[in-house]
Amino acid sequence: MRVIFAVALAFWMVATHGAAADVQALIADGKLQPALDQVEVDLAQNKSDVTLQFLKGLVLARMNRLDQAAEIFQHITEEHPELPEPFNNLAVVHAARGDFEAAQKALQMAINTHPSYATAHENLGDIYAKMASQAYNHALQLDEANSSAKAKLAMIDDLFPVPASNNGAGKTALAAAAPTNPGQPAGGVAAPAPAQPQPQAQLQPQPQPQPAQPVSAPQPVAVDTAPEPEPVTEKPAPVPAQVSSEPELRAAVESWAKVWSERDVAAYLAAYGAEFAPADGTSRAQWEQTRRARLQQSSFIRVDLASMKVVEHGPEHAQISFDQHYQSDAFSDDVRKILIMKKVGADWKIVEETVR
User: Fold this and answer.
1) Residues 282 and 351 in one domain
2) Residue 310 near residue 232, CB atoms below 8 Å
3) Can you tell me the distance from the alpha carbon of 135 to that of 128, in angstroms, rounded to the nearest whole number?
């Protein structure tokens, strides 16, 4: 049974204008360096063109320049967090780099954005299977006689057989594609139906070399199709699935800034959920100790927020971005901050905090 690691990346492009169509044609012909040169020239004239940004990410991923591709796709998710497909795209690049935890997180964001996005659900299952395979292999390295681990690993291998290597297998496959009908991308992988037919793109992760293991682990299979792109006139607007929680979210963030300015340690720390993990890798206890000391040692703190943007990912998750001006008696700075919020009971809590 040949099971594909399905990663249809149906990005809703703003418009397939002449420049984008030229780049897509070069990608389809396998002329990656000319495609990259062309898209960079076009972006120099219009750096905010989302279609060209996306195509540059596809070219870089096809060239196996995965770190640069990840930066571009990450930027797109920040600028257009209402779309699930870019999160799925970013997950593919993470998987190609062997970072399955990051891939899992990106896919979960795609699902939060669009709960009916079948491709992301399927990819998430494949990620879980890959992680389970690695865990079972590790268990067998520690105990070769572990019959339970052998049986479980054999079940995964039956579902995800390792493909024979031929004809350039191991290269990341990439293609621009248009759906055969609304909601059905090329390759037969279901995607959420937009308001009208939209051009799509597909990307497959670069299989990473694996260390020798007692039992082989599943590997992704690349798929490459390249139908002619079809023009569209506009990007579909997302349809709200529930009553907006934006007023509550704005109030929660403004309250967080207020108690921070007032140096109310207990209220400030209570704004963060139990799932919150510091971005610098320190433990939650160390982070709380550091924050408590800084708030108590400052003679004054002022936190001002501006240009706030709220994007809801279902009824229990949201992303809030804003410009933050911080000033105290010892330090001041201006940053763009992104908070991931989760509904906990009647309150919204911060579960992730990053600075751009």
Assistant:
1) yes
2) no
3) 10
N- to C-terminal Cα distance for the chain?
45
**DSSP per-residue codes, 223-263:** ----PPP---S-PPPPPP-S---HHHHHHHHHHHHHHHHTT
| β-strand partners of 303 | 326
Tokens of 231: 């023009």
Q: Which domain holds residue 351?
A: 246-355
- Over residues 123-160, the pLDDT tens digits come to 887 888 777 777 777 777 887 777 776 776 666 566 55
Instruction: Give the DSSP letter string of 143-185.
Output: -TT-HHHHHHHHHHHHHSPPPPP-TTTTSPPEEEE--SBTTB-
Q: Is residue 225 a part of any domain in this protein?
A: no
Both 188 and 291 in a single domain? Answer: no
Tens digit of each residue's pLDDT (9 = 90 or more) over 191-211: 333 333 343 444 444 444 444
- Do 126 and 269 lie in a common domain? no
Which amino acid type is present at position 58? L
**Identity of residue 352:** E
* Six-digit token string for 121: 């659900």
